[in-house]
Design goal:
The chain is α/β, with parallel strands linked by helices. It has a single domain (about 10-240), classed as 3-Layer(aba) Sandwich (Rossmann fold), CATH 3.40.50.720. It has seven helices and seven strands; from the N terminus they run E-H-E-H-E-H-E-H-E-H-E-H-H-E. The protein has a seven-stranded parallel sheet, sandwiched between helices. It starts with 7 loop residues before the first strand and ends in a 6-residue tail after the last strand.
Length: about 250
């Protein structure tokens, strides 16, 4: 499929897990995909090589989402190289799970920096290079709207903030036919949240479909929103969580 031919996409945190699946899905649809990574240079290069071997085009950029200037520089670098950014996917994120009284101010600063500030910085900068009809898609969490266990205070707060941001920015850029949406994954089998982990059975017990998702499940709806069929969808939230929040 070439729904995204001649489009440039930028994905934060794209070297592994859900981010890597999104990179692959957008490249398969014909987009040139640039993505950031923090430290796993070998995984990032392997993903670039895999995309190219399958006839696509991908570029990896080292950038720490905790550093707002690094985020801005990465977006500008992509725009300078390819002339525009048609699709932004805010995927990079971190999660800490602790009792609310055990969190430190450093924990707070870091999770807000990566999960919220980086989304703002990437969105604001990308919009300077985004033509009419662009797409902004942010990866949230099912924990933004319903918390099924303890210890998620900071993470849930950070992801809930993205819902309000999505709705507000959708209003700001709607006149340019730019859509802004958020996707809320449930438990997805990645190296950070394996389907064989200690809490996996408890998570499955909360689902309507009691199984972990795969990265491609999230990537599929991202590709849909990024494509021409997503042109009339904006300011919306999508739960892709096996019915965790049903």
């Amino acid at each position: 499929m070439t729904n995204l031919a001649n489009k440039t996409a930028f994905v934060t945190g794209g070297s592994r897990g859900i981010g890597a699946a999104i990179v692959v899905a957008l490249a398969r649809q014909g987009a040139t995909v640039a993505f950031t990574y923090q430290s796993a240079a070998d995984k990032a290069q392997a993903l670039v090589d895999a995309v190219i071997q399958n006839g696509g085009n991908a570029v990896a950029i080292k950038a720490d989402s905790a550093d707002p200037q690094a985020v801005v520089n990465a977006v500008n670098q992509v725009a300078q190289k390819f002339g525009k950014i048609d699709i932004l996917v805010n995927n990079a994120g971190v999660a800490y799970r602790k009792d609310i009284c055990d969190f430190t101010l450093q924990d707070f600063e870091h999770i807000i920096a990566v999960n919220v500030r980086a989304v703002f910085a990437a969105t604001q900068t990308a919009l300077l290079h985004m033509p009419n009809g662009g797409r902004i898609i942010t990866i949230g969490s099912c924990l933004a709207t319903r918390v099924t266990g303890t210890g998620w205070g900071l993470y849930s707060m950070s992801k809930a903030a993205l819902i309000g941001f999505t709705k507000a920015v959708a209003r700001d850029v709607g006149p340019k036919n730019i859509t802004v949406n958020i996707v809320h994954p449930g438990p997805v089998d990645t190296d950070m949240n394996p389907a064989t982990g200690d809490n996996a059975d408890r998570k499955r017990a909360n689902m309507a479909i009691p199984k972990y998702g795969e990265g491609k499940d999230i990537a599929g709806i991202v590709a849909h929103l990024a494509g021409p069929q997503g042109s009339y969808i904006t300011g919306a939230s999508f739960d892709v969580d096996g019915g965790t929040n049903a």
